[in-house]
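Figure caption, in words: inputs first, then the predicted bound structure.
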Amino acid sequence: MEIEAFITNLPKVELHIHIEGTLTPELRWQLGHKNGIALPFDSFEELEASYRPDPDDERIGADGLARFLKQYFGGLEVLRTASDFYELGMRYFRSAAAMNVRHAEVFFDPQAHTERGVPIAEVMQGLQDAQGQAKQELGMTCDYILCFLRSMSAESAEEIYDLCQPYRHTMFCGVGLDGAEAGRPPLLFRSIFERAARDGLKVTSHCDFAQPNTHEHIKQCASTICGTGLDRIDHGLSAADSRELIEMIKNNDIGMTLCPNAYNRRWSDHEVYPLIRRLFDADIKITINSDDPTYMNDKWIVHNMQMVRDRCPFSDVEMIQLAKNAIDICWASPARKKQLMDELFRYQDRMISGKTPACKVVEISGLVPLPSLT
Ligand code: ADE
Ligand code: ZN
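Bound structure (adenine present):
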């Protein structure tokens, strides 16, 4: 996939990436050997092939999430020590910096590690060291979002939150909810979300695309929990089918972190891009992100941006608006947000004066009719 220089050079903010979803086959193989863990693959080539599923196999709608999560959790076994988590973090930050990601808010799943017997200090130390090194070596800022696993109980979420308290002021800026969604509405976690909000943390939740009861799940995140809803919703694309949800998300000023490639693996272009376009046109603050790039055909933020650029499609000005949305809804300090916005304005000025190469004119004849609103 060819990426325009305009997109590569655009100063970017990544708000939806799971650090565990950046584990490459190479690092998994290497850490497996280092830690003496027998992987369920006879060779590196076999392991690598498992990251490239048959595309026809993937077009299985909502069941795809369960299948993806099996792969994702399977990969975690090799992560044992602080140095493993550091290596995982730094590899991501170096790739991100190469794509001109200037700030990233990165999910991590501590329960998935403590459940396997990994001490929480190993996880936090490694990730925290990578966070510091990224700032020093790469000049990018990053923060983490502690995700609760929705397959586990609300009590378990409380326990991991307690365990992570010593790191609250230095390492994570918010909490989230991820994992298998069917039958696990966000409302089950209301108490821990509201506790985190009272503690001054930001709050977000996954509402994966086209999951069972998705409208109800989105509604809980957009209005019920924390009084007027969470700070952000991760995915939530199905809101575009409902006038009521669009209004609610807009009125409560909730940002949305979309990951087009994750949907496009399982749904066709005309099922995905008109919905993204509709949320954007409704002035909802949507952003474009990468989710779990190594498990999703190696598509990173630049690929996801190019996909919406070509398929929504979005003009230069609209692409810049997406980048502004990400700064607007990110959880960095006001001073850092101002730096990010100034950098983006400088880029915009250069582009307008024609100094940025390869600003192609977007073809709009490919627009597909919108599915109807309910
Ligand atoms: N954990 C990692 N990636 C996820 C996703 N896209 N949805 C739900 N849980 C996840
Ligand atoms: Zn996600």
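The first strand starts at residue 12 and ends at 18.
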